[in-house]
Design brief:
Blueprint (H helix, E strand, L loop, with lengths): L12 H8 L3 H8 L7 H14 L15 E6 L5 H17 L2 E6 L1 E3 L2 E3 L4 H8 L4 E4 L5 H9 L4 E4 L10 E5 L1 H14 L5 E5 L5 H16 L9 E3 L4 H12 L7 E4 L2 H13 L9 E6 L2 H5 L5 E4 L2 H16 L8 E4 L2 E3 L11
Parallel strand pairs: 1-2, 1-5, 5-6, 6-7, 7-13, 8-9, 8-10, 10-11, 11-12
Antiparallel strand pairs: 3-4, 12-14
Helix pairs in contact: 1-2, 1-3, 4-12, 7-8, 9-10
Length: 346
């Protein structure tokens, strides 16, 4: 539990609880950013904290600067997280930092740190946090801000709140590069299978796809744009839908390598060959892209470099240096393999 200072430094949590008309455990939940508090109760406690000048002083504000940071990832099982871990490990070694790795807990709306995680953060004395999860709740953002915990988001799903530092990839550029590649091979009937419609990366990659079509004066066809959830089964289903169109595409830009494997399966199910019958471009350049048969042409997202950049930014923030900009984007590039070729002659 986060405690206030001594009697000379400010009111105790018990005084705050009495002022707000709640129990001490309830006041503690508000201070620690817990979500299981009614909005009206949270408002009363927050107002009492501000009115009485309660000092939120986690252990990581000790006089001796700690040399530990936290990394919270959405999963410890994916090759995506492996690339992020590799980048953070390298940068942390260079900075002389220890890293504590936690896996987020899956929920209906995404992957977020579990409620008790913030108490653990305080207890172990971490100096800052890197988040590579789907999203943080407003209460969690508020807790981090109130307790002056430096944090950086790696590839956030939604637009972060103002002032929040994040690192991502040039998704629009990547979408345009993938589509330009297919156009250069002679394709015009190009489809795209994206992830969640509301995700920043999905909308940016689709926007890049549309920009490339417009620049080449190739008509945009709404029926060629399909959204999913970045999972193989959904991509498999979306590809079958595209193949059932009166005029199916001759090429498809798939907005993740993992989904591209689902596309491969759908094409094999229909007896179609890559790239003889249809060309496929992925996004990420995970190990799966090299293992696929044929090797997957894909847009490389510099995951390890993104993680390294995020750690370096976090170190600067821990030292009191706020970065000039809140969003850092690293370039993407096309990695050509064997999954793309010229369209079959009509």
């Amino acid at each position: 539990m986060v405690r206030g200072g001594s009697a000379t430094a400010g009111p105790t949590l018990a005084v705050v609880a009495r002022e707000a008309g709640v129990s001490v455990p309830t006041a503690s939940k508000v201070v620690n950013g817990r979500e299981d508090v009614a909005p009206e109760t949270r408002r009363r406690v927050s107002e009492a904290l501000d009115r009485l000048g309660y000092v939120r002083r986690p252990r990581f504000e000790a006089s001796k600067p700690p040399r530990m940071v936290d990394l919270v990832v959405h999963s410890l099982e994916s090759s995506w997280s492996g690339a992020v871990l590799h980048g953070v490990e390298q940068a942390a070694h260079d900075a002389g930092l220890e890293v504590v790795v936690s896996a987020g807990q899956t929920r209906t709306r995404g992957v977020r740190p579990e409620r008790g995680w913030f108490d653990k953060l305080t207890a172990r004395g971490s100096a800052g946090v890197l988040f590579n999860v789907a999203e943080l709740s407003p209460a969690q953002h508020s807790w981090l801000t109130q307790h002056r915990v430096p944090f950086v988001l790696i590839d956030p799903v939604l637009e972060p709140p103002p002032g929040v530092v994040s690192v991502g990839a040039a998704n629009w550029q990547g979408g345009m590069t993938a589509t330009d590649h297919l156009l250069s091979l002679g394709h015009e009937r190009i489809a795209v299978i994206a992830g969640y419609r509301r995700k920043m990366c999905s909308s940016a990659r689709v926007a890049g796809y549309r920009s490339a079509l417009a620049a080449a004066k190739v008509p945009y066809r709404p029926e060629y744009v399909r959204y999913g959830n970045f999972m193989e089964p959904t991509a498999h289903h979306r590809m079958l839908q595209l193949l059932d169109l009166p005029e199916p595409p001759t090429a498809v830009f798939v907005c993740s390598d993992k989904m591209a494997l689902g596309v491969y399966a759908a094409l094999a199910e229909r007896g179609l060959r890559v790239p003889d019958d249809i060309s496929v471009v992925g996004f990420d350049d995970l190990p799966e892209a090299r293992w696929a048969s044929p090797g997957l042409t894909t847009v490389r997202q510099p995951l390890s470099e993104m993680a390294q950049t995020a750690l370096r930014l976090l170190v600067r923030m821990m030292e009191g240096d706020q970065p000039e900009g809140t969003r850092t984007e690293l370039s993407t590039r096309l990695v050509e393999r064997s999954s793309t070729g010229a369209p079959r002659p009509v």
